[in-house]
Amino acid sequence: MIEDLSVLAPDAVRSARTLERCRRRLTPRPARQNLERAAFAGFCVLYLAAVALDVASVLIR
Amino acid sequence: MDRELELDLVARLRAGDTGAFDCVHAEFNTRVFNFLARLSRRRDVAEDLLEETWLRFVDRMPKLRPDTRLGPFLFTVARNLHISYCRSRLIEEAHSSDMIGLWPLGTPRPSPFESTVANETGRRIEDAIALLPAMYREALLLVAVEGMKPGEAALVCGVTPETMRQRLSRARALVAQHLDEDDHPLLVALKVVTT
Predict the structure, then answer these.
(1) Which end of chain B, C or N, has fewer beta carbons within 10 A?
(2) Who's near B132: CB < 8 A, 6+ residues apart?
(3) Is A10 in contact with B29 (Cβ distance < 8 A)?
(4) Choosing among B13, B34, B124, which should be mutated to test the A contact, i.e. which has the most A CBs within 10 A?
(5) Which residues in chain A are closer than 8 Å to B126, comparing Cβ atoms?
(6) Which of residues 32-51 of B touch A (CB under 8 A)?
(7) Within its chain, how far is the Cα of B96 from the centroid?
(8) Domain ranges in chain A?
(9) How far off is chain A from B124, nearest CA to CA, in Å?
(10) Residue B163 near chain A (CB below 8 Å)
(11) B128, B179 in Cβ contact below 8 A?
């Protein structure tokens, strides 16, 4: 092994930010947050379905 | 890293333990960064790829095998990301040259280490490493700088141990040409790992 090579340190601020991002990914999301996301996704699906039905009814006429 | 400690860390990583992740990050962050900086010869690229390496590692943590060797695993992820980066650059440059005609593709950049090396010997070694073609450079970095066994480095690069030994031997010959010395410490270290 070559031991007399220089060592370059990565940017400390960026490394800390990356570490924080990784920790956030590792922390399980609270159940309430998941529920809120599911409710919002459900609302979006219903809204899109309603718009699609409306467009379809105009086209059929 | 002690093998028992490594197995314990892997078990904790599989369970999503942030403390275990912090230990692995502290152990490998600078090492993976130096590997990427010497491989890409650009500090900014190495910083980007380092971040992506850790994010990929976190995504794959629950699926780690219980006997995973963390070093080879992380260096494999980093190396694959560097290859993807090179491929995207090639496509980008090919498109640019199509559009602009004889647009120069650039000359090899000096390694970011060259400006930080204080002594002449260190500068010559960095220079010799930076001038190697990528496949020989990664072999040399993994074995002679990171201290991996040729078999482990072969796994990282996805080649047979015999191919890895040939690459190391070729890297030694190219470095010898550049350094023009037979008893240089780098060459002695390479001779040990290739024989």
Answers:
(1) C
(2) B140, B171, B174, B175
(3) yes
(4) B34
(5) 5-6
(6) 33-34, 37, 43, 46-47, 50-51
(7) 28
(8) 12-60
(9) 10
(10) no
(11) yes
**Amino acid B97: pLDDT:** 59
Tokens of A42: 């459900």
Instruction: Give the per-residue pLDDT at B117.
Output: 61
* Cα B51 to Cα A60: distance, rounded to the nearest angstrom: 53
Domain residue limits, chain B: 3-84, 114-194
Least Cα distance to B117 among B129, B135, B133, B108 occurs for: B129
pLDDT of B100 reads 54
Task: Write out the two tokens for B41.
Answer: 């010869």
Spell out, as residue ranges, where chain A has pLDDT lower than 70.
1, 3-4
Q: Is there a contact between A26 and B61 if contact means CB atoms under 8 Å apart?
A: yes
Encode chain B (195 residues) as per-residue pLDDT tens digits.
788 999 999 999 999 999 999 999 999 999 999 999 999 989 999 999 999 999 999 999 999 999 999 999 999 999 999 999 999 888 777 666 555 554 444 445 566 666 666 567 777 788 888 889 999 999 999 998 898 999 999 999 999 999 999 999 999 888 888 877 666 767 776 777 666
Residues with Cβ within 8 Å of B48's Cβ and at least 6 positions away in sequence, in order, are B85
CATH 1.20.810.10 for the B3-84 domain, yes or no: no
Interchain contact, A6 vs B126, CB within 8 Å: yes
* A2, A9, A27 member nearest B185 (Cβ): A2
CATH fold group of domain B114-194: Arc Repressor Mutant, subunit A (1.10.10)
Interface residue ranges in chain A relative to chain B, Cβ cutoff 8 Å = 1-2, 4-11, 14-15, 18-19, 21-23, 25-28
